[in-house]
Write a structure and sequence with these properties.
The chain has 4 helices and no strands. The chain has 114 residues and is an all-alpha fold. It has a domain of 72 residues.
């Protein structure tokens, strides 16, 4: 890959980590849409915890971290890191075996098609 592509990817990851690690703490503390409707319609009491409620990263934080700001920031950074690894792994796997055609191959293919 070209150097400029890696620079864009690097800047994107740094910006994502900053937003997830610092800015995410200032996100709205209001309930999400479904939770708001359940409150407004009066059936929020029937809500059940999800199957993921016992995970250490449930509820947009890291279990066991006392500081809410740090807990939310670490959860955001962990989320960005996991998704970056998954995305790069997926792109690598999908691109494996697909080599760009050399100029000689492309020229001979074009002359055969003509």
């Amino acid at each position: 890959m070209k150097r400029s592509v890696w620079v864009v990817i690097g800047v994107g990851i740094v910006v994502s980590l900053f937003i997830a690690g610092f800015v995410s703490f200032y996100a709205s503390s209001s309930p999400d849409g479904l939770e708001k409707v359940a409150e407004d319609q009066g059936f929020i009491e029937t809500a059940q915890d999800s199957a993921n409620a016992s995970l250490p990263t449930a509820d947009y934080g890291i279990a066991g971290v006392e500081s809410e700001r740090l807990s939310v920031g670490l959860a955001g950074i962990l989320g960005v890191a996991v998704m970056a690894v998954v995305a790069f792994g997926l792109f690598w796997w999908l691109g494996k075996g697909k080599k760009p055609a050399s100029d000689d191959t492309a020229a001979s293919t074009n002359s055969v098609d003509a």
